[in-house]
Amino acid sequence: MSFKKINQELLEVLAAEGVESPNDFQKAMIPKIKSGASCYGFAEKGAGKTTTALIMALNKIDFKEQGDNPQVVIFAENKKKVVAIEEMLKELTFRTEIRTFSIYEEGDLTFQKNTIYPGVDILVATTKRFAQLYFQNGINLNELKMIMVDDAEFLNRGTSHTDLDRINESLKSCQFVLFAAEDDPKFKRLNDLFMQRAVKVKA
User: Fold this and answer.
1) Given this model, what pLDDT does residue 85 score?
2) Which segment of 41-55, 136-150, 156-170 scores lowest on mean pLDDT?
3) Which of 12, 48, 169, 175 lies at a 20 to 30 A Cα distance from 20?
4) What is the edge-to-edge ordering of all strands in the sheet holding 100-103?
């Protein structure tokens, strides 16, 4: 079974990377994301959750540069994970004009703000630094279509879920997609905050 209704140029890049058909998790998850529904994707490590996130983020922007502001934001727990995700994105987009950037607490706030201002299509971020920049008017969310969270278990610890909910309160509409290893009962508070009608996919 091949990927269905995915941007053709993106498919060619994926094929060059050795990804020619979806695995079982992607077969179940991708149609739900494409439907526009907010959803959880639960699967064990190695099931392809991060790859799924990148494929759908790039497909969401039609695999091309768009507008002046972020179209997709991918949240991860810390600098190490944020940088790793952006590196994966760059491997998939290095022959395109797609603009990606990563932000995290250890980076210079002014530099990050000035890099985002001219235009970024996909932003990879920690929730804390994103919230800092957003509430200092460093990020415009008027064109944001999708928020993804990789290894979303960290939202159940500390204040990350609060940062994300504060951001959500400023959005007119946005699709949320959260990936995690398993359905933790602690995700209930996310359901109450911004995932009220989310679909759950388990593999």
Assistant:
1) 98
2) 156-170
3) 175
4) 100-103, 122-125, 72-75, 146-149, 175-180, 39-42, 199-202
pLDDT value at residue 1: 52
Per DSSP, the residues of 7-32 read: -HHHHHHHHHTT--S--HHHHHHHHH
**Helix or strand holding residue 180 (H, E):** strand 175-180
The reply to whether 107 falls in a domain is: yes
Residue 3 forms part of a structural domain: no
| DSSP assignment letter at 89 | H
Q: By C-alpha distance, which of 104, 100, 50, 55 is closest to 80?
A: 104
How many other CB atoms are found less than 10 A from the CB of residue 56?
22
Q: 156 to each of 66, 160, 180, how far by Cα in Å?
A: 33, 8, 11
Which whole-number Å values give the CA distances from 201 to 2, 30, 31, 126, in the listed order?
A: 19, 10, 11, 24
3-state secondary structure at position 40? strand
Task: Judge whether 1 lies within some domain.
Answer: no
Give how many domains the chain has, as a whole number: 1
